[in-house]
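Help wanted!
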Amino acid sequence: MHAIGVDIGGTKIAVGVVDEAGRILAQVRRETVADDVADIDRVIAEACTELAKEHEVGAIGLAAAGFVSPDRRSVLFAPNIAWREYPLAQRIEDLLEPDVPVVVENDANAAGWAEFRFGAAREATDMLMLTVGTGLGGAIVVDRELVRGKWGVAAEVGHMRVVPGGHYCGCGHEGCWEQYASGTALVRDARQAAIAQPARAQRLVELADGGPATITGPCVTQAAQEGDELAVELLSNLGRWIGEGSASVAALLDPELIVIGGGVGAAGDLLLSPVRKAYEAQLSALGHRPVASIELAQHGNEAGIIGAADLARR
Amino acid sequence: MHAIGVDIGGTKIAVGVVDEAGRILAQVRRETVADDVADIDRVIAEACTELAKEHEVGAIGLAAAGFVSPDRRSVLFAPNIAWREYPLAQRIEDLLEPDVPVVVENDANAAGWAEFRFGAAREATDMLMLTVGTGLGGAIVVDRELVRGKWGVAAEVGHMRVVPGGHYCGCGHEGCWEQYASGTALVRDARQAAIAQPARAQRLVELADGGPATITGPCVTQAAQEGDELAVELLSNLGRWIGEGSASVAALLDPELIVIGGGVGAAGDLLLSPVRKAYEAQLSALGHRPVASIELAQHGNEAGIIGAADLARR
Amino acid sequence: MHAIGVDIGGTKIAVGVVDEAGRILAQVRRETVADDVADIDRVIAEACTELAKEHEVGAIGLAAAGFVSPDRRSVLFAPNIAWREYPLAQRIEDLLEPDVPVVVENDANAAGWAEFRFGAAREATDMLMLTVGTGLGGAIVVDRELVRGKWGVAAEVGHMRVVPGGHYCGCGHEGCWEQYASGTALVRDARQAAIAQPARAQRLVELADGGPATITGPCVTQAAQEGDELAVELLSNLGRWIGEGSASVAALLDPELIVIGGGVGAAGDLLLSPVRKAYEAQLSALGHRPVASIELAQHGNEAGIIGAADLARR
Amino acid sequence: MHAIGVDIGGTKIAVGVVDEAGRILAQVRRETVADDVADIDRVIAEACTELAKEHEVGAIGLAAAGFVSPDRRSVLFAPNIAWREYPLAQRIEDLLEPDVPVVVENDANAAGWAEFRFGAAREATDMLMLTVGTGLGGAIVVDRELVRGKWGVAAEVGHMRVVPGGHYCGCGHEGCWEQYASGTALVRDARQAAIAQPARAQRLVELADGGPATITGPCVTQAAQEGDELAVELLSNLGRWIGEGSASVAALLDPELIVIGGGVGAAGDLLLSPVRKAYEAQLSALGHRPVASIELAQHGNEAGIIGAADLARR
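Answered by r_m:
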């Protein structure tokens, strides 16, 4: 059975028809206005209706950044779109032409599920997926099942606290993992280093071409690939936090595989090596247990579509 | 179907027949020698054989402190008994007179399962159990299933890191949660306070009756119940660490109920109130999600027997 | 001998004639343009010249936020004014009508010296002054002498690190004391609490009258004075960081008195009590040494003028 | 004028005649019983009397581990000898045959003074001395004067807190610098690594020749000199803590020179390089100030004698 997956971003929506092997057969993209909730509904429904004319579709899955109700029908809260206890599945069903069931999934869960079913973790039974981007998103698979939690809010891994009294987080707390293990953290650390250690940051500032405040993640990756000592340290430090936090998760969940997604994956082994080293150094009971593999995600930006579609079929 | 549960400690073994409602119908206790593995096998088998003569028994579950293989047949590693990849289930089956299947379970998992099936969490679907004793043990139930992990090593919650560069742990790492949220931590903090703030620690030292180094957990609880300011602070601090760490676990697992077991439960609300307050203060997305309940365990020392027996039936 | 003290702010300059008892006999205020260095010189020189016509003046002291050379002639670096290795004393002397020697002092040092000579610490020999404002400034007196350090940069107490991996600081590092012990920290913590614990922050948000992002320090103080639990906690937390950091300084310097200046002093005992409690709880070797007193500063905004004038006489 | 310096250890006493250039002209050593205070007095007095027969001596300085009164006459408290408000100088004067004035100094202060007057810091005016041994001792020189503090208890640098909630310290607190920057910390970290990362610790355990618990500081140094990766990391980590803590001290005191004494100096650049790197990386306002030099101490075990003698002359 084919299914449609929809990846709903703040200003863009990507919609694809996905087959049972996780392949995207057709795809359309639409722009939206983040604070116009009804417009988002309409754009989604039209795109789905359009694709459903060309493809026989048995289910629709919507991937949304936010808290999703356990019955997979509503978004309880979203940080970037004005959904509050919003019955998103029902609204889309009401607007659709074909009579196809709709479910909502958290976007990080959808992406993780794509990796679990058709990507880096397709042979695994217990997986931790980390999406290292603006924030740190996650998905957890235990014994082949996605962990959604009692109220649908599980796998908010970025808000595990890793430093008491640590960096402020947008969630109102201090020391959240995503403040140390995200692209945002990498950039902020690079900019701080350019202030605190200006001589060492020369190459970074050059690449940024506009002073410390314009350093970006790709600048750091490029400088590190050139061998710049500070840039290598910054990626290594990011990797250390990813690996050490993962070891804490492993103390709880004992996964066999940790999948790293998000833009920082472009750094390749400059990131993965320190992740693996830190994971192993920090893993409880090393020597009395196997060590989980740590691999890059395979589906990039399309993971949300693929995972949402596949979850809709279940 | 009745089942036998066996709780294997370092020097004592408790064996009970458990019915399907989680009641213990009969129980025997035996002493063992911790480093004589064959003796432990023999003592367990004899006790089970003896009880099986009086009761019809369909399965035997062994609760052991250590890493248990995912097939529930072997102990991979135990901190206090000389088991290393030890085929414990097979050994007991070989020695038993009745032909009854035997499984091995981690002791904290067994205790948690008892609470989940017949205790504080019997109405829950997603639970975190914390056993706050010498160390910090745990059990995790997700959607009605015990989380064992890929290699049977999940729910080692005490080794989630809560303070980078924090207290040394016996596992070789620093800052493990059990170094802040255990009876051992409480006692150590009390003794440290007696050195650092001698005037405030007078009542504690009096109760200990032998100087700072003899302060025990019950001393702290008693002093706190009398209203001693330092003792109340120490319990409050312990509670804070339990609650804050639980909030990190909740970011991953979104449980509906957190069950607190172990000796520190004797402190009642002097402990539970700060646990709940810290959990709520530290919980991600408070206001956009329900808050898990936090309750004391109901089965005390017998939880291992009850849980192991019930798990053996499954 | 009378002396003139000048307190140079980013946009305002206050100039006063100070007698040997630390009294201000006359005072004028002027506005300046922060990035027009020559204008600042001119405004200072004119104000001093004017006051020197009415009062016999033997020396002029300039209090400036920034690093001051050990010979007290130049500002090496200033965060808010465009001074870089700027020969400030010479420039003012060149523009002055009377022939009076000029010295430059760091503004926090000047304020601390005013408290030491004529204020809260006038009977002390060893003092730590903390100015808890936008940042955390300091002054250190050891055996009756101001500690300037080898290169004039001592007493930058706000940049002692108190939390590894802690809050980002404008200096480019993490975990600086001023990120925990300043008015800015208080406000930021209050705003974070309004996000993380909205129900508890109701009174604070009411007083702010414009949502979490408009909460100010005076809101917190007022709410705390009304008995609001969260506000009391926030001040208590600020006090704890002031006290605990002071205990670290005391391990190095063993002061007899710690003077707290800056706007947060308005909170009175709501702040001072937790400062004292935390200082004592964290002080090394309590019971084997006297405990320093902790008192509020007495000179408020005029401390810079008074201290700069008095230091110019020495 | 020649003076005698006495270095009083727990079980050994070293006594030397020191000339004005800091050279030891004669030296004797004696054994003592740590808890027999009168015996210690007698042994010191006899050794001094004996040396004073051969050398004209104008003053005697006693270096003692403990808190020394500001008048340099008494030991207020000592961790290893049963002195409590003990009038040590008077007792020795009473027992001496020659009529020579006696003063008491803290042993770390004495060692630091030796380096300041005749060793690594002889050209400096502002110095921080760190003695990295069993604990972390220190001495502070500001503008050519030893900082003793109001009550004689300054320069207890090892008890500056560097990690909130960090390692327990014998002083009763958590996270004291000496728990991260001492020989004891190095050994403990090495032993922990041997538990947590057994494969990487093979060479260390081999050198220890008796399992993880027998690893010593010299094992780590030797392994590091052979290029062992873990050992190099351990020294680097020790160096990082020394350097980062020193940067915090520099925020307060702006020293021109930091002198590293104690047994760990044997590691040479394997230790010094990471110290310097971390100091610079963590130093506030790098780029706007000179960076202090960091050098090894020059006087080894004799620093206490030399410094105490010289301080007695002042």
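OP: Thanks! One thing I noticed: Chain D has two domains: 3-113+302-313, 123-297.
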